[in-house]
Amino acid sequence: MREKAAVEVAGLVKRYGRTVAVDGLDLTVGYGTVTAVLGPNGAGKTTTVETCEGYRRPDAGTVRVLGLDPVADAARLRPRLGVMLQSGGVYPGVRAGEMLRHVARLHAHPLDVGALAERLGLGSCGRTPYRRLSGGQQQRLALALAVVGRPELVFLDEPTAGLDPQARRATWELVRELRADGVTCVLTTHHMDEAEELADAVAIVDAGRVIAHGSPDELCRGGAENTLRFTGRPGLDLGSLLTALPPDTAAAEAAPGVYRLRGTVDPQLIATVTSWCAQMGVLPDGIAVERHTLEDVFLELTGKELRG
């Protein structure tokens, strides 16, 4: 019988001496989905992912990956996983093509090595030693090594760090194809647009716990609170407008003649604003609803920027 989720983490605790890196964290990753794990530096996301990969033993809580314990069942689990590390895991002197073919031979039904190398722009550097590859080439090789064995679940750590726009797009397309083939992907990234573009679900981690979880749209919708922007003549009396709007609405003249209202933006609010403008003899220009981005949500929840 198949498990309900590809990854199930409940009450995970991990300490390093007196420092609590992960403090009762819960996380569920559905089969065949892409889940982005976001968090400021030191939030505990890397420790959580490494525990799921079997590289760290939890101090408390339970972790199940494809229904197995990543530590106790490592021998059974690892052939079913793909793991992309940010650095390490490759012999410095080995040629890129040799390393990729070696890893492919460890699996029963690997992807076509040549096609995968061409797909990720590695065809021209197959005979180049790993230490002489550029940072972007090393990153693409790490991705190829993670997926060449046709894993059921792949962990991708900053998969597009240091890549040029073309290689970044190629990586995105590969992740989409993995998902279409039923592969579950867990990725950590410092690129908010990447999480919005690829992820079915986003888990925001801070202080060792998941503080928000949902689809990018659900998190950005955030109770329907958004920003309404319009332009008109400078110096309008916003106080008279606010008396006609819900009490939780905020309004400000962000720049001369540029007005922003923040709150629950719905058809009634827009109708109220346009009616008020008509009473003021103002023809509003450029009325637009500015949707919250994932970065806005992240900053509101953590109070920190997501840095690489």
Number of domains: 2
- The whole-number mean of residue pLDDT values reads 91
Computed Rg: 24 Å
Q: CATH homologous superfamily name of the largest domain?
A: P-loop containing nucleotide triphosphate hydrolases
The largest pleated sheet is described as: 6 strands, mixed
Q: Helical region count?
A: 11
**Relative helix content:** 25-40%
Shape: elongated
CATH architecture of the largest domain: 3-Layer(aba) Sandwich
Question: What's the short version?
Answer:
With 308 residues, the chain is α/β, with parallel strands linked by helices.
Topology:
Layout: E1 7-16, E2 19-29, E3 34-38, H1 45-53, E4 60-65, H2 74-77, E5 81-84, H3 96-105, H4 113-119, H5 135-147, E6 153-157, H6 165-180, E7 184-188, H7 192-198, E8 201-206, E9 209-214, H8 216-221, E10 225-231, H9 238-242, E11 250-255, E12 258-264, H10 267-279, E13 285-290, H11 294-302
Parallel strand pairs: 3-7, 3-8, 5-6, 6-7
Antiparallel strand pairs: 1-2, 1-4, 8-9, 10-12, 10-13, 11-12
Q: How would you sum up this structure, described in words?
A:
There is one protein chain. With about 300 residues, the protein is of the alpha/beta class. The chain folds into two domains: about 5-215, P-loop containing nucleotide triphosphate hydrolases (Rossmann fold), CATH 3.40.50.300; about 220-290, Alpha-Beta Plaits. Helices cover about 30% and strands about 25% of the residues. It contains eleven helices and 13 strands. It has helices at about 45-55, 75, 95-105, 115-120, 135-145, 165-180, 190-200, 215-220, 240, 265-280, 295-300; strands at about 5-15, 20-30, 35-40, 60-65, 80-85, 155, 185-190, 200-205, 210-215, 225-230, 250-255, 260-265, 285-290. The strands form three sheets. Strands 5-6-7-3-8-9 form a six-stranded mixed β-sheet, sandwiched between helices. Strands 11-12-10-13 form a four-stranded antiparallel β-sheet, with no helix packed on it. β8 (about 200-205) and β9 (about 210-215) form a beta hairpin. The radius of gyration is 24 Å and the shape is elongated. The two termini are about 40 Å apart.
